[in-house]
Specification:
Helix content is 31%, strand content 27%. It has 307 residues and is an alpha/beta fold. The strands form 3 sheets. It has a 6-stranded parallel beta sheet with strand order 1-4-3-2-5-6. The chain has a 6-stranded antiparallel barrel with strand order 9-10-13-12-11-14. The protein has a two-stranded antiparallel ribbon with strand order 7-8. The longest helix is centred in the N-terminal third of the chain and has 16 residues, at 29-44.
Length: 307
């Protein structure tokens, strides 16, 4: 999948483009059908499928105090979209200047940039432009003027409710990971760069990689069995989300740390993706470091039965 910095970067100028537009946070089942419609339209019309998304959630600019924690990093989102067969992706910098564009001017600029659009695929409730002045009906009218087809896909329903990024975040915050998995169409995962910790895990015999997960939605504090993806390799792992109440002088801020089984290399600054398998227990306060070590050993044995 080719990554574009602007529409004119598209390598194939001879064919029309079939666009799918959205934030696509989580790339859940509803997003997937929008993206797949663009892929299908491109295949049937000798066109190029292109996903258009944004470098950050619009709320970070429009209403920062209401900006949600994200389900995926940008890198995860790009990889997930690529797996659906999209030919190219355009990531638009969503800044204050962009937020002031009307829906009409946004679509007109996109059409001018790509030159020739076959179709634009969105969710039926898609809103765009300054003050959300654009919707599917206005997109259809623009399509009639500019010569493209508009596809407005109905939301995907699960258990009589619409699948949405907001609903997935709510499920995850309540620890309902299986529910989130159903809406995502895959197992939920987080991704973060390994940052330096205080080395306490290594001191007690269980070296951990501390992950920077700032801005991401996390399940409740606790210990989880997980798979860790690192440099193309998959490791069995134990994940702890919490404040480590047993470790003396530990910071009170939330930490996300993973112990990769049968692995002891230095991986500072590497990026790890953690796929959640099962929640093992709550984070607990132990009377001694020895009691904590014994529990971690027990957690590892429990986790091994789940992989």
């Amino acid at each position: 999948m080719k990554q574009l910095s602007q529409p004119s970067d598209l390598y194939d100028k001879e064919r029309k483009v079939c666009l799918a537009i959205g934030m696509f946070d989580g790339v859940h089942l509803g997003h997937q059908q929008v993206l797949q419609q663009a892929v299908q339209a491109a295949s049937q019309n000798n066109s190029v499928s292109v996903a258009i998304t944004f470098d950050q959630h619009p709320s970070h600019i429009i209403s920062p105090e209401q900006a949600p924690a994200l389900i995926q990093t940008q890198a995860q989102r790009i990889r997930t979209i690529e797996l659906l067969g999209i030919d190219a992706i355009l990531i638009i910098k969503f800044d204050e200047a962009f937020s002031l564009k009307t829906g009409k001017s946004f679509i007109q600029e996109i059409a001018q940039g790509f030159g020739s659009i076959h179709s634009i695929c969105v969710g039926k409730d898609f809103m765009f432009g300054h003050n959300r002045d654009g919707n599917f009906q206005s997109l259809q009218k623009l399509g009639q003027k500019l010569g493209f087809i508009s596809y407005g896909l109905q939301p995907v329903i699960l258990d009589d409710q619409v699948i949405s990024s907001t609903r997935i975040r709510t499920a995850l915050s309540k620890g309902k990971i299986d529910d989130a998995n159903q809406m995502l169409g895959r197992k939920f995962s987080i991704e973060g760069q390994v940052v330096k910790g205080d080395g306490k895990g290594r001191e007690i015999g269980f070296a951990t990689a501390n992950l920077d997960t700032k801005g991401l939605i996390l399940p409740p504090n606790g210990v989880y069995a997980a798979y860790a993806q690192l440099n193309g390799h998959k490791f069995k792992a134990l994940l702890n989300i919490g404040v480590r109440p047993t470790i003396k002088q530990s910071p009170s801020s939330l930490q996300v740390e993973t112990h990769l089984l049968n692995f002891n290399d230095n991986i500072y600054d590497e990026v790890i993706e953690i796929e959640f398998i099962s929640r093992l227990r709550n984070e607990l306060m132990f009377n001694s470091t020895e009691a904590l070590k014994k529990q971690i050993s027990s957690d590892i044995e429990h986790a091994k039965t789940l992989f």
